[in-house]
Amino acid sequence: MEQVSANRSHGGTQGVYTHQSTATGTAMTFSVFVPDHAPGAKLPVLWYLSGLTCTHANVTEKGEFRAACARAGIIFVAPDTSPRGDDVPDDEGYDFGKGAGFYVNATQAPWATHFHMRDYIETELPALIAAEFPADMARQGITGHSMGGHGALTIALRNPGRFRSVSAFAPIVSPMHCQWGEKALTGYLGADENAWREYDACALIEDGARLPDLLVDQGEADNFLHEQLKTGLLVMACRKAGIPATVRMQPGYDHSYYFISSFMAEHVAWHAERLKA
Amino acid sequence: MEQVSANRSHGGTQGVYTHQSTATGTAMTFSVFVPDHAPGAKLPVLWYLSGLTCTHANVTEKGEFRAACARAGIIFVAPDTSPRGDDVPDDEGYDFGKGAGFYVNATQAPWATHFHMRDYIETELPALIAAEFPADMARQGITGHSMGGHGALTIALRNPGRFRSVSAFAPIVSPMHCQWGEKALTGYLGADENAWREYDACALIEDGARLPDLLVDQGEADNFLHEQLKTGLLVMACRKAGIPATVRMQPGYDHSYYFISSFMAEHVAWHAERLKA
């Protein structure tokens, strides 16, 4: 692992790091904010998975999470959204290929070679974080935005007990039922929809997966709400499964970081409450 | 004035606007955050002047001012740092020409045609803000970063009584005594240093100008501290003039928005205290 940059911020260190990933077969870049802490102390970890077109940089620059994480003593990890590099295949659309890994392990050519974001986020990066940072991996929370909200929900649902706290900003709640998801899942996994279910939060819940509880914020003025995000499907799935979900529709807010940053401190506080020692 | 964008954020509206400026003879873009407020209510205004290479966008995206401004009920105005456009002359350096207006009225060719940032910030834009936004122009504060800190200090010093509160992040305190300033003042104003003094905070104080009080944050790990910013000159000038200046050297912090955003909420609170009705 190599440090790309380190900036003191909000009484902690905002770092950017790169490493050679075995999961993706590429270099991968991610950011980590570490609050000041007592020598030897281990801090809880909050994962933030980003949305379409984003890298680690978007939330790192615009997310307004550092003040809240410094206050609560939480490490904040922001991975990239796909493998990158000249030998990584891409698509002309912004919603597939680079910047759009959808947190799956691709099985279809030519994507299967590098697009193993599920393994990267579920297995490889956590091991690296545990080895390189003062992280208490028994206290992890996960959140994300849009495609990253989908990532946070599905990863938490498939790994019961790993995350004490789960939240999302404007998540894609059922990729099987929206154009973004249909395109990505077909491309990465093939046409057999049975292979899609483990990458669909609503299908995972329907198939028996559970979360301890859940916080979701969703802007009512979000252009993608009705065609792509379909928050109502998650509300119904949680209700049916008895998952206590706090889903807040936020009047006037859109899909941008102006929305995310507005509610970031509340999400961090919500995770902090559940990540206490 | 035309609205470029409007995003709901932190319980207010973050807008970006463009208008045809008579001061610069170009289109100028700026951003304004307006917290929610009672109909007919007028809110105090905090000006933020940006540094070299920046537009309105840097602080708007990375400044982390909205939560604090929403809490305090303060309008936050972020202008551009120079005229822009194909017919505006430029320099190869990042520290002169476009993105580097230094808040002066240029007198030298070819800059004198468009580079009237002093008139733009001191006269034209305030009139537009007063006309178009629910702004109480009797309650204004001003701050800025680096070149924008220089702008904030010099504009406040030249306009006694206009600003109830003045602060700066890592300001250039004496452009007459650093390479950035010498290049810019020579280029925009010519070689006669007498013409420079009204654009130099330390010289203005030496010549009798005063501020009510002052808050400055300066990172100790700022690469530009010793060669360009020279905070100590301002400390000495204020001490000699009896200006109560709170100048805080912040260990480990650099010149970036990771530094600015760390202390933004404290600056907004400091202005809010002085801008109360």
How far from one another are the termini of chain A?
28 Å
Classified in CATH, the superfamily of chain A is Alpha/Beta hydrolase fold, catalytic domain
Low-pLDDT runs of chain A: none
User: If classified by CATH, what would the architecture of chain A be?
Assistant: 3-Layer(aba) Sandwich
**Biggest interface between protein chains, with counts per chain?**
A-B, 23 and 23 residues
Strand order within the widest beta sheet of chain A: 1-2-3-5-4-6-7-8-9
* Outline of chain A: globular
Work out the oligomeric state of the chains in this entry.
Answer: homodimer
- Helix fraction bin of chain A: 25-40%
Number of strands of chain A: 9
Helix/strand/pairing class of chain A, anyone? alpha/beta
Calculate the mean pLDDT score of chain A and round it: 98
Number of helices of chain A: 9
CATH class of chain A: Alpha Beta
Q: What is the H-and-E element order of chain A?
A: EEEEHHEHEHEHHEHHEH
Largest sheet of chain A: 9 strands, mixed
CATH topology of chain A: Rossmann fold
The domain tally of chain A reads 1
What percent of residues of chain A are in strands? 15-25%
Radius of gyration of chain A: 17 Å
